[in-house]
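Sample A.
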Amino acid sequence: MKFPTPLIEGKLIKRYKRFLSDIELPSGEVVVAHCPNTGSMKRCQQESARVWLSKSDNPKRKLAYTWELVEVDNQYLACINTGYPNKLVGEAIANGVVKELAGYAEQKAEVKYGGNSRIDWLLTGEDGRKCYVEVKNVTLLEEDGRGYFPDAVTDRGRKHLYELAQMVEEGHRAVMFFCVSHTGIDSVTPAAHIDKKYAQAFIEVVAKGVEVIAYQVEVSPQAMKIERQLPVEMPRALDA
């Protein structure tokens, strides 16, 4: 996936009200950019970090700039725009990059299932077999190359796990796909220290047959693409 227009480098001043950020451009001008991320963005909003913005020419937009990438710890790149992972995973599946999800005849996005949810990708084989794929963006690196999800308590994410398990019970295949949009992460595990309920649900649904896949994204200011598979670790022992 290539960015449609060249990204503009800047320096992060602060993120606030969740969806807003003040960013200093090379000219010294400070602009307000949309922050397309509902999470905590833990460790991805360091003061004075290098960031990259896109700019829209649409006069109807309230904010012309959108924050897309951030440099973490002065060495790694992470994509904070949570609108991209579904597209990246969809492209990778369609192009046969994700070998675990190859061989399906049909691929549809945002299909209703479960209660009032929509699955990110529904794959259907020529024989009618279905595979439900839920995509989650991983950008939290804490130590030893280990990436964590979620970066904040997520009741919605836990609900998605149980909905995947329900699909397995109904005889379908269900996959949790961790899209790792951070170049410094080498493995992925549920963040039990942040959301113990999510980690416990993860253990439960894996035992019921939900599959887990993690792939890392190659991130640059020019383009992004799914690059390589990463190992997934089960959560560490949970306190009673």
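Sample B.
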Amino acid sequence: MVPSRCFSALLVLGTIFGHAYAQPEPTVPPQRAPDTMEARTLACVGCHGDKGRGVANVYFPRLAGKPAGYLYNQLIAFQEGRRRYAPMNYLLAYLPPAYLKQMADYFAAQSPAPLAVTAPAAPPATIAQGQQIVSKGLPDKKIPACTACHGTALTGREPGIPGLLGLRTDYVSAQLGAWRYGTRTALAPDCMQIVASTLSEPEVAAVSAYLATLPVPQQDKPVAADTTQLPMACGSQNPHAAEAKP
């Protein structure tokens, strides 16, 4: 038998410990992610690198520094199915155009250090042919030089023509092929569809190889919008093409 006083003491202690055990844990305020576009675009980092810097995968291009109008047009094209890549089509399916415009503005404003570019293993004659097409065009086919639209430094032109630097051979070839066969389309008149469908396969290979030899410069901003007459009508340079829909 436990003496009554001991029993009472045990009862009190049990009550105290039981009460202490029953107390709820202190509430920890939930941690909220910063409400910034950098935080919202973290889903893009895995494929396009931090701040759109680019990654080693040849099929995921650098986004940083490209014209906002161009980036917006591409986001809309993925959303509408005019560019076909299932993960992008899925991710963008239900985002409002005004939000896509904010994403485009964010990546256009970034200038992260570029990745090193590994020169492609292409014959010197192929590289030389690509350089000729990029800088001089193909007059006999009425194809202008790439520099005539994308800028003499190939860093792009506002508001809707992208830079062509820091891209791998396979990526450039794949995009020209997509235009050629209609799996990638742009706003009418689709000047790149005309160019890509006119180039021969060896010419596509030459242009792709040459562009892949060119690194991204530290200052890779596109040429400002101006009144320069482009050699071809191009829907992407429509001043209203990059405006978000209401």
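B remarks: Residues 134 and 146 are 5 Å apart (CA to CA). The chain has eleven helices and no strands.
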